[in-house]
What does this fold into?
Amino acid sequence: MKKTMTPGPTPRPTATATGNEPRRRPTINDVARLANVSKKTVSRVINQSPFVNKDTRERIDAVIKELGYAPDPVARGLASRRSYLVGLIYDNPNPQHVIDTQQGILDILRGSGLELVIHPCNRRDKDFLNGVRGFIDRQKLAGVILPSSVSEDEDLVAVLREHDTPYIRIASVLLDEPEHSIVTNDAEGARQAAEHLAGLGHKIIAHVSGPDSFRSSHERRSGFIEGLKTAGLALDKKLDLRGAYTFQSGVEAGRRLMALAQRPTAIFAGNDEMAAGVCQAVRETGLDIGKDVSVVGFDDSPLASRMWPALTTVLLPIRASGRMASVRLLGDRLTKDPHEEDLDGEVHPRLVVRASTGPVKA
Amino acid sequence: MKKTMTPGPTPRPTATATGNEPRRRPTINDVARLANVSKKTVSRVINQSPFVNKDTRERIDAVIKELGYAPDPVARGLASRRSYLVGLIYDNPNPQHVIDTQQGILDILRGSGLELVIHPCNRRDKDFLNGVRGFIDRQKLAGVILPSSVSEDEDLVAVLREHDTPYIRIASVLLDEPEHSIVTNDAEGARQAAEHLAGLGHKIIAHVSGPDSFRSSHERRSGFIEGLKTAGLALDKKLDLRGAYTFQSGVEAGRRLMALAQRPTAIFAGNDEMAAGVCQAVRETGLDIGKDVSVVGFDDSPLASRMWPALTTVLLPIRASGRMASVRLLGDRLTKDPHEEDLDGEVHPRLVVRASTGPVKA
DNA sequence: TCCCTTATTGCTACCGGTGTCAATGCCTGA
DNA sequence: TCAGGCATTGACACCGGTAGCAATAAGGGA
It folds into this structure.
């Protein structure tokens, strides 16, 4: 239908031919012209407006398909004052968490025309809020997802509200209205860890918790204590240490525990990083992990399965929480219907038993 | 100059007033009006056009500052047919690589008004190219960065060229014109590993390489062989195994090596994942890592420093390569001048000696 | 003094969509 | 037969910038 009559060489095979000319993407105007309607009507069709006659809609859909037309998200963003970008803000975290969250979000975004823009930040940096402000103000994000590393920051959330940016917080407990939250129920996982250790006959059990500033530290600790209680045990004050979710802090806590007159026979660390550190400290003492001392972590990071002996830990379904967050955030803007299980607002941790735990020595 | 004379109600307080009304962002029109110039001239200023009178420029800059104006990237994207988004496409995430690359890119993007959009993919999926095509066609990316997991895919690169999307490939060796490449010189690091082991007196040294399909596997292997040669050693065919860059493949290769009549006293694995697997296999035999058998990895992943004993490995400056790629990709679009060291087109690996290697047993 | 250059700047038309609101056609009840 | 209501559709302005080119002012040489 185009310049097919030119007598010259290379007569451009078919419609999809890619000569070396610019090859412009079809626009809404092209569709409108070919379907013989106004662009507004085409716009209605691509936005699934119910006020379009069935025949008209079919005709337009046919043209869209023939042309391979897809609306330009940039233009849509400008006109509607809402970009087709989803923001992910996070702080330094555990790489595996980041990756899993990204994957989860993308599981949902894929095919919807939305893209994921990432924005790591540093909450200790006093300028971090301005960075975030710039980010969400510049791009008019379709929404923002806040994983656990930043979801508890009320100042951050205030900024989002201020800019009318929809958001979802992923956290160990409910922090907000349920519509804005995905709950990971960390306490549940810790409880399982406690029951597992108690079930192996351990009585002298220690805990190394994460930093005070994270809600998850408290949740994991209190879930653990609760689990112990169920088994008729209590957490001795001397065996209740605080770490910082880092490997090094795990090493230090482990050393302190190993130096005690009455050493624990089992240790539950608030995450795998610290658990790995604890293992190192135990080894320094010449004791065997899984035999002399059982160690449990939290997260099921890649580290856990690659350590020697492999670490018993609590698997937190981060990727699933990312999917749920996206579904909740975008709901109506998604093209395909989400899976049933992603509609739920919470995930449940699960204990993964490996070689780092064993029955208490007689 | 505005509608100040209207007698009606709600005379709209002042320009900067922020009641609780929406608080509209200033636009180029606001700047133009206040500076008493046309928007085109303001546009020239924000785009650093040289054809603006100095006084005019200063006046406009002052207004911009006063208003806190920042151009809307979406509108700019629409008008200029180039978004302010940088794409990162990658496969197979070694999480740490992904994170480091993202960080490196963001080190440079930060403050430039550009954002990072991520697009993980699966090269084994036959539809992956279409996914990528949709991605770069929809968003008109300012550019794309291809880290080593995808940089060798010529079909992918062809798609980028086809869509006139600028790109940079990060790879172990030069794959393209230098302007499109960042080179990581993996061979160099492997050579250091060989020299280290030879220096410890090892003679019977094995290698577990990555999969054939990655250039980096060959580079690391041939660098290693070269290093051995320098030390007067050669890589025995029986000790030259192929893995898949996965933990499990490392375990398997390690077992095979441990089953040999003449066991190697040192093993160099093509990455840390496999090295961890090798360590596990060695342990199964009852031998001690670092004493009976020395093991060297490649990447310096978090795993390396958290293992017991900590792994001697080759640190690959991934983050720096991400920075370089961004600088090369965006050059002129960046607001602040890049650091000297980020202008270089290649990074150099470095051996990190830890506890998994030691002198050969007498 | 006048025409031609060069330096600046603004007018106007887009980019590819969306929002508002009026217009059109047809059906229904009075 | 006529007004009113519902279902559809389109005209037009606008989102916030950029691009091409004409317009205007100032400087220089003949």
